[in-house]
Design a protein that fits this description.
The chain has three helices and eight strands, in the order βαβββαβαβββ. It has a single domain, classed as Roll (2,3-Dihydroxybiphenyl 1,2-Dioxygenase, domain 1). By secondary structure, it is an alpha/beta fold. A hairpin with a 5-residue loop joins strand 6 and strand 7. It has a four-stranded mixed β-sheet. The chain has a four-stranded mixed β-sheet with strand order 5-8-7-6.
């Protein structure tokens, strides 16, 4: 019954969120007004909201599951190498079993891209 969990990410300036998600990660804007944008790519979606008050309180870490983390890494590291997280700038196997890397914006919003092993 549940289909998607869609996060709301707060920014001091909406443009900072659009710069990261649209310019850096390749999301597309599906809706935009003065204080909010709905962005999407493939099956991932988020709401970016301009709110200095809430942005000061929360800098989230998000995860996006993928079926080809190596292809995502090749694309994003070529598109925006400056956004690679300094502590997770290469695809690596993590102790919990996923292969992942991360991107980090200038406001410290972090997006982890991960691929889980196929379950037989």
């Amino acid at each position: 019954m549940f289909k998607n969990l869609i996060p709301k990410i707060f920014y001091d300036r909406l443009e900072d969120g659009l710069e990261f998600f649209v310019d850096g990660l390749g999301f597309e804007v599906q809706y935009r007004d003065a204080n909010m944008a709905v962005i999407a790519r493939d099956g991932a979606k988020a709401y970016l909201v301009e709110s200095p008050e809430y942005a000061a309180k929360d800098r989230p870490e998000l995860g996006i599951d993928t079926d080809d983390v190596d292809a995502v890494y090749r694309e994003l590291s070529a598109r925006a190498p400056q956004l690679l997280h300094p502590n997770s700038s290469k695809v690596a196997l993590k102790p919990w079993g996923s292969r992942e890397f991360a991107m980090l914006d200038k406001t410290t919003v972090c997006v982890n891209f991960r691929q889980w092993p196929d379950r037989a």
